[in-house]
Amino acid sequence: MTSGIRLILLGKQGAGKGTQAVRIAQHYSVAHLSTGDLFRAAARGGAPAGLEAIAYMDRGELVPDDLVLRVVREQMLDGGLMDSGFVLDGFPRTLVQASALEEELAISGRPLDIAIDLEVPTEIVLDRIAGRRVCDDCGTTYHLTMPPKVNGVCDVCGGTVSQRDDDTEVAVMRRLELYETATMPILDFYREIDRLDEIDGLGTGDEVFARIVSAIDARLKTED
Predict the structure, then answer these.
(1) Does residue 64 lie within any of the structural domains?
(2) How far apart are CA 120 and CA 172, in angstroms?
(3) Is residue 43 part of a domain?
């Protein structure tokens, strides 16, 4: 089975989840659901839930469980993702969220296929995030070491390239602290139900992607 996969991508902020999630979703022809992108889109549209979520994110705080679950349930249930498959990026981030997802999957009659943890040292993700710059319009990502051709102007769409409020060093350090306390227990949760694979997140994007695909295919083969 190469379609309809149900996958969670875990790891510290800056581990490369967003980039790999897009590639995984394309490779297996499933939807990519990023809660961060959903919140930012909702905020741009003036939705109260989106604006509230962004306020937490900009302070480097975790968005409350009830707020996260409200948005994710709408997307997964109303969008049909429980049947067609998905790659979740940025969710779940707490045990409450992980337990709620398991309940929804149990109701649907099909369990999670795999939870992948991208392992990258803290000092490396800190450099990646603090140096990250993003196009305000199309979301193309740059870094201080790999800037756009024209300073502050996106190569893709000509939009403004800037540092997100939640990418400052202070906000990043807070998020990493919260990851250790709130998100790390999720690894044990998925390890206990035999759904966790830990993947080395260092190397080129292609190298990391090849490791991920190998792990996913091994799981799918076992299930078949």
Answers:
(1) yes
(2) 15
(3) yes
Structure tokens belonging to residue 141: 């990502």
- Residue 202 inside a domain? The answer is yes
What the block records as the tokens of 200 is: 């080395």
How many structural domains compose the chain? Answer: 1
CATH number at residue 109: 3.40.50.300
Q: What is the DSSP string of 114-141?
A: EEEEEE--HHHHHHHHHTEEEETTT--E
The answer to whether 64 and 56 have CB atoms below 8 angstroms apart is yes
In a domain, 137, yes or no: no
- Consecutive 10-residue runs of the chain (224 residues): their mean pLDDT? 78 89 94 84 81 84 86 69 83 91 87 94 87 90 93 96 85 82 88 96 96 95 75
108 burial level (CB within 10 Å; 0-12, 13-18, 19+) = middle
Strand (E) or helix (H) holding 89: strand 86-89
**Residues noted as catalytic:** 17, 93, 132, 164, 175
Report which of 210, 211, 186, 183 is spatially closest to residue 196, judged by C-alpha positions: 186
